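Example 521, ligand pyridoxal-5'-phosphate.
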Amino acid sequence: MKTEGRPTSPVAANANLPQTVSGSKALDQATSLIFETGTPRRTGVDLPEPKGRKSRLGSHAREGEIGLPGLSEPETMRHYVRLSQKNYAIDLGVYPLGSCTMKHNPRLNEKVARMPGFADVHPLQPVQTAQGALEVLSVLSHWLMTLCNMPAVALTPKAGAHGELCGMMAIRARLDKDGQSHKRRVLVPESAHGTNPATAVQCGFSVDEIPANDKGRVDMDALRTKLEGLGADSDIAGIMLTNPNTCGLFENDIIEIAELIHAAGGYFYCDGANFNALVGRVRPGDLGVDAMHINLHKTFSTPHGGGGPGSGPTVLSDALKDHAPVPYVVAGKDGFDLVEHADENSFGRMCAFHGNMGMYTRALSYMMSHGSDGLKQATEDAVLNANYIQASLSDVMTPAFGGTCMHEALFDDRFLKDTGVETLDFAKAMIDEGYHPMTMYFPLVVHGAMLIEPTESESKGELDRFILSMRSLAQRAKAGEVESFKQAPVYAPKRRLDETQAARKPVLRWTPPSETAEAAE
Ligand SMILES: *Cc1c(COP(=O)(O)O)cnc(C)c1O
């Protein structure tokens, strides 16, 4: 068996621990590529030759082997179970990735999503045969509109960024309808998630950046100056603002921001990816928001980071609701129906069918099992947990801004000054401690940013263990243990990767070793 190229643990080497012949380390099983384990002629199934089969390929029939690796069933099981155990997962430990809301996905949601009437529903089924599924869409819409105090919601967008596109297309449709097509400037705070300016540009708007102040919020003086003297006929199409913002802070001046934008004849797009810090406490409609996407895969659990698809329903204000995309569900006296064709106001259609059904059932299951009191408590616990982390680390790490935070705690790298340890090294050392690192170097407005979002899923015991690890790392950095940080991670199956090369020149295809290479070995 070939062993070169397989990562060996430097810890084992350094500590003079014996190397195993198998390459495994107890429960950490050595894993080869499937192409190295399998062979083309092996198979896990034994099927009879189909009777009466005639090939219609003629001269196009394949003559050689296809070259895919064949494995027996137990080999297949082991291969994928071993691979799965090399991954970090929310079901394995704290996943404090700020901005991403990696929270527990209650198993009840999975059970509901797998019910045949939901899981097997076909988008082309006659509506009379899918009344239950349409009711889910209708009830979910009701709760999203209620939680936001907004009169309409477009369910079809399939992710947060897709929801942004939906909201901005509704704004553009409204502007064009009103003969305001010269309004093409969108204000975006410099701390915004990258999807905001990208969406604005995708919709044909130009992006005008608003600076942040030293409190991590929109610089109101800069905003007022920008909008000063502009009437409703200005070139301002709107603003895209995240609340709580990407620094984990509530935008205290949000009502004035909405008023200023409306006075300039623009619309207020709110990036609602952080709605999990507001549910049950604040209704965006009360703040003057015209459009906001909700990441069902963040706020309302649904597997996030677990490889599941997303869903980005977008709530719309009175001013925008007529421009919503099709299809949408309507309730009539004979049951539920779908509006499939756009009238002259709707901006059209965002996807072929009705969006991600599995995400709707999971989100509704999450809402109904929590109840309104439970949703509010989840919000409060998420904010409490983040503040507990911020308060417990603020003497050894440096919070980026003063005061309390919302659902995530943001630190900068001042506490690492002169230690030689950088944010990246700190994050890599967290891997050895058994944690997925927090979000690093984002938001860009904070130097060496470390954004920690614990979510409400974590118990106090888990948070205390996490805090203990973080404190110990901060103290080790200050004690001059820079070399161990530069080495980290030492316990991970893969150590430091050349991330730039991996992104720019990914090796995505296995190529069989050539005869000459084999001969040379
Ligand atoms: C996650 C996120 C988005 C994008 O959502 P996707 O579902 O990944 O497209 C947009 N804005 C903010 C602030 C986010 O956190």
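Summary: Residues 372-491 form a domain with the Aspartate Aminotransferase, domain 1 fold (CATH 3.90.1150.10).
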